[in-house]
Amino acid sequence: MPVTKDPDSIAVAGPAIILVEPQLGENIGMVARAMANFGLSELRLVNPRDGWPSEKARAAASRADHVIDAVTVFDDLASALADLNFVFATTARQRDGFKSVRGPVEAGRMLRTRHAMGQRTGIL
């Protein structure tokens, strides 16, 4: 299959990525870049600390302008999740018995299954 650099032709329906109160535009841009590398395009921001749009995010996005241009900003988490049927929450913080933990392979399978059922998914 030929390689294409057209972002519209490589974006696939996948989970929305939701960042809650991101603190640095550069971090938002790097997330957009990683999303583009994997064919994801729907980035949602909840109350970004430094507001939106962010030139620092655009600079860090490096060829993921299509993701940056399509960002949706929400005032609260409930609004950002309102149209999604299934969301995985992620954290780097240690939790004790809060919820069951899924590894990335299992989470990916579950997201694909939900997508195949016509559900809208997200990763928080």
Characteristic terms for this protein:
single chain; 124 residues; alpha/beta; Alpha/beta knot; 6 helices; 5 strands; disordered N terminus
Provide the succession of SSEs: HEHEHHEHEHE
CATH architecture: 3-Layer(aba) Sandwich
CATH level-4 homologous superfamily? SPOUT methyltransferase, trefoil knot domain
Order of strands in the sheet with the most strands? 3-2-1-5-4
Residue fraction in strands: 5-15%
How does the helix and strand content classify structurally? Answer: alpha/beta
Number of helices: 6
Low-pLDDT windows of residues: 1-5, 7-11
What would the average pLDDT be, to the nearest integer?
A: 87
Gyration radius (Cα, Å) is 15 Å
Q: How many angstroms separate the termini?
A: 32 Å
Q: How many domain units?
A: 1
Give structural notes:
- This protein has 124 residues and is α/β, with parallel strands linked by helices.
- The protein has one domain: Alpha/beta knot (3-Layer(aba) Sandwich), CATH 3.40.1280.10.
- 38% of the residues lie in helices and 15% in strands.
- The protein contains six helices and five strands, in the order H-E-H-E-H-H-E-H-E-H-E.
- It has helices spanning 7-10, 25-37, 55-61, 65-69, 77-81, 104-116, and strands at residues 16-20, 43-46, 72-74, 86-88, 121-123.
- It has a five-stranded parallel β-sheet with strand order 3-2-1-5-4.
- Helix 2 runs parallel beside helix 3.
- It is globular, with a radius of gyration of 15 Å.
- The N and C termini lie far apart (32 Å).
